[in-house]
Design goal:
There is one protein chain. By secondary structure, this protein is an alpha/beta fold. It folds into 2 domains: about 160 residues, NAD(P)-binding Rossmann-like Domain (Rossmann fold, 3-Layer(aba) Sandwich), CATH 3.40.50.720; about 170 residues, Rossmann fold. Helices cover about 40% and strands about 15% of the residues. Strands 8-7-6-9-10-11 form a 6-stranded parallel β-sheet, sandwiched between helices. α2 crosses α3, α8 crosses α11 and α9 crosses α10.
Length: about 375
């Protein structure tokens, strides 16, 4: 009976891997077929619709794409269809000087578009793409995506290093070149004075000394399998205080509350800003920190875009495919047979790939 439970768990894990792989392949071929219906770009688009239904991190990676389309077609109406309030807020904050409309009625927007740019979305959009077959269609899906080969990987038929990967942003850049548009090598966010002013007001309210160096710790993530154990974040923060005199500023959600309790017990200095920051103040905080340590999540991508130094921890997700784009942030992960799996539910919790990352793994960063 003891052997049966892990066998069933792995069978479900593998079945889910096969299902996601099949969906990924089907989406790639469907969108490739829709692209084949295109004629030449007319160069005078009036209604451009961008579909990106991911979270904040996905939007950060897409900021140069959205901005490039806005600049290339200054007279066009640019509409973004997104799937979360956080992603919509990110566009409004980080692209506030550009005319980008966040759409609440996808069907109407897609039916009137003369250019559709698919970055991320479910198969439900495909019918609308086919219905408006006159629109010029671009998609950012690459065949060099290891997600589609995950069943072979999890069955042990291929090794991780044999699977081809192309970072999602590289795929986006190649996509825009088809329309004659160039983009920068990586997303960048310039911190604005008003964001710094807002942050300083918060730090004064928390009685944190102006100009004092600090680390930023983000222990949360959208899905539990992406979260490094909170106790290890507490150990990192304690070491930063003891060895480098760096107070830790905590950001995120309820996991930050748990971390603040642990740090109080360790008598390490910290400031709890979990739930207190808007995106502008968060960017200013990350842009001014001495070091950032966090899970694979939206704040990690913002940290990379503002030029922060630090480490981001990866488990289920592939850093080569979706990781932060930065020369100053290390991508830390543990080699485990099932990682990356690209799945949101892990049958091996709590002994998953994130728990396999040790303090020594990020020791060089500290």
């Amino acid at each position: 009976m003891k052997l049966l439970v892990p066998v069933i768990r792995y069978a479900l894990f593998f079945a889910d891997s096969m299902f996601r792989s099949a969906c990924a392949w089907a989406g790639f071929f469907a969108f490739a077929f829709r692209s084949s219906l295109n004629g030449a770009a007319n160069g005078d688009f009036k209604n451009i619709v961008i579909v990106q239904t991911g979270g904040i991190g996905d939007i950060i990676i897409c900021l140069p794409v959205i901005s490039a389309l806005r600049l290339r077609y200054p007279g066009a109406e640019v509409v973004l269809i997104t799937g979360s309030a956080g992603a919509a807020a990110a566009v409004k904050v980080f692209l506030s000087e550009q005319r980008i409309t966040v759409c609440s009625s996808p069907a109407d927007a897609l039916s009137s578009a003369d250019c559709i740019v698919h970055l991320r979305g479910n198969a439900g959009f495909l019918a609308a793409y086919m219905k408006n077959h006159r629109a010029f269609f671009l998609h950012g899906l690459s065949h060099r995506n290891a997600l589609r080969f995950s069943p072979l990987y999890h069955a042990g038929l291929v090794k991780g290093k044999q699977i081809k990967n192309e970072h999602q942003y590289v795929s986006y850049r190649k996509m825009l070149r088809k329309a004659g548009i160039e983009t920068p090598e990586r997303p960048q966010i310039n911190v604005r004075p008003e964001w710094v002013k807002s942050l300083n007001a918060l730090l004064r309210a928390k009685e944190f000394p102006a100009g004092a160096p600090y680390a930023v710790i983000h222990s949360g993530a959208r899905w539990e399998p992406r979260q490094w154990p909170v106790k290890r974040f507490a150990e990192v923060a304690a070491r930063l205080w003891e060895e480098r005199g760096l107070a830790s500023i905590l950001i995120g959600d309820e996991t930050g509350k748990e971390l603040s309790t642990l740090l109080s017990e360790k008598k390490a200095r910290f400031v709890d800003l979990a739930g207190c920051l808007d995106l502008g103040a968060l960017a200013a905080l990350l842009g001014g920190c001495s070091i950032f340590i966090g899970n694979d999540s939206g704040p990690a991508h913002i940290a990379a875009a503002v030029g922060a130094r630090g480490a981001v921890l990866y488990g289920p997700q592939s850093p080569e495919l979706f990781g932060v784009l930065s020369d100053t942030i290390a991508r830390c992960r543990a080699d485990k047979y099932c990682s990356p799996c690209w799945q949101h539910i892990c049958p091996f919790m709590p002994d998953n790939c994130m728990s396999a990352i040790t303090l020594e793994t990020i020791g060089t960063v500290l």
